[in-house]
């Protein structure tokens, strides 16, 4: 239980990526505000700060999960591109993503994923792209390992640690963003297959539903990994985004989420199931 509430406190105190600042292509800027590339809203692995309550349907059973994530992407330098309105940006990003069994008496920590990366982003008007080199390592919770294992939650302990290069391109149009790209595992301590792909559509209402700061949003993301025989994983997220009228990055997103496919929870990546629930993203 102490792990869960510690996660809640950290999740409430770390920022979330909600947008990018003005592109300043005429000069080089150190530590620029925001990002040039909008990551897919429905991606479960992006560095965001959130608290989500999920109902997880497993083969033969179901449990309730508390999912906590805390992370951010920090711009290091932004510089002009080759044209008059394009720009590049190098950032550093990191996240800790954890899941807790809400049905256990002590809210046992089940799994934790640690992700750190270096995104290189590019933007030219409605077109944007990101190349991200990142490391991920995953660990089963100690309380979870001490309990008698239920068959539907069984996970073989492996040293799940790898470095990946991810390439994503995006195009914005009338409030929509279309994103797609491949990934390749450069190095792994386990016998993992290397290739994966993803594609998604995001939407945010161009006009606020409650002036001046409340807008509706929705995102759909489909992913497939060679390691799981290219079985598609579908994640859907939709809700309302409430931004501060004084600072673009200060915002709260209240959303519902649904996932069907292999679980995006580290050591359980081979377990095919579904979950749904509600959550809050927080941005400072």
The percent of residues in helical segments reads under 10%
Please work out how many helical segments DSSP would assign.
2
Q: What's the overall geometry? A: globular
How many DSSP-defined strands?
13
Could you outline the blueprint of secondary structure elements for this entry?
Blueprint: H1 2-11, E1 29-30, E2 50-58, E3 61-80, E4 86-101, E5 109-124, E6 127-140, H2 142-146, E7 161-173, E8 176-188, E9 195-204, E10 214-225, E11 233-243, E12 251-262, E13 272-283
Antiparallel strand pairs: 1-3, 2-3, 2-13, 3-4, 4-5, 5-6, 6-7, 7-8, 8-9, 9-10, 10-11, 11-12, 12-13
Description:
- There is one protein chain.
- This protein is mainly β and 284 residues long.
- It contains two helices and 13 strands.
- A twelve-stranded antiparallel barrel has the order 2-3-4-5-6-7-8-9-10-11-12-13.
- The radius of gyration is 19 Å and the shape is globular.
Key attributes of the depicted protein:
disordered N terminus, 284 residues, globular, 56% strand, mainly beta, 12-stranded antiparallel barrel
Quick recap:
With 284 residues, the protein is mainly β. It has helices at 2-11, 142-146; strands at residues 29-30, 50-58, 61-80, 86-101, 109-124, 127-140, 161-173, 176-188, 195-204, 214-225, 233-243, 251-262, 272-283.
């Amino acid at each position: 239980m102490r792990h869960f509430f510690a996660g809640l406190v950290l999740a409430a105190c770390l920022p979330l990526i909600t947008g990018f600042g003005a592109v300043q292509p005429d000069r080089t800027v150190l530590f620029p505000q925001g990002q040039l590339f909008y990551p897919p809203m429905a991606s479960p692995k992006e560095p965001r700060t959130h608290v989500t309550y999920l109902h997880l349907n497993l083969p033969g059973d179901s449990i309730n999960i508390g999912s906590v994530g805390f992370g951010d992407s920090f711009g290091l330098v932004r510089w002009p591109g080759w044209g008059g309105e394009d720009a590049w940006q190098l950032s550093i990003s990191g996240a800790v993503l954890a899941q807790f069994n809400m049905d256990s008496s002590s809210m046992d920590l089940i799994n934790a994923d640690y992700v750190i990366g270096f995104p290189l982003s590019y933007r030219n008007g409605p077109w944007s792209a990101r190349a991200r080199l990142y490391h991920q390592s995953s660990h089963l919770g100690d309380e979870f390992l001490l309990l008698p294992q239920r068959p539907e939650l069984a996970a073989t302990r492996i040293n799940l640690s790898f470095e990946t290069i991810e390439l994503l391109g995006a195009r914005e149009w009338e409030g929509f963003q279309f994103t797609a790209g491949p990934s390749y595992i450069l190095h792994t301590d386990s016998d993992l297959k290397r290739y994966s792909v993803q594609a998604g559509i995001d939407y945010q209402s161009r006009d606020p539903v409650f002036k001046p700061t409340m807008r509706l949003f929705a995102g759909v993301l489909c992913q497939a990994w060679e390691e799981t025989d290219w079985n598609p994983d579908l994640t859907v997220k939709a809700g309302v985004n409430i931004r501060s009228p004084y600072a673009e990055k200060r915002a709260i997103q209240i959303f519902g989420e649904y996932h069907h496919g292999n679980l995006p929870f580290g050591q359980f990546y081979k377990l095919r199931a579904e979950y749904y629930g509600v959550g809050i993203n927080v941005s400072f």
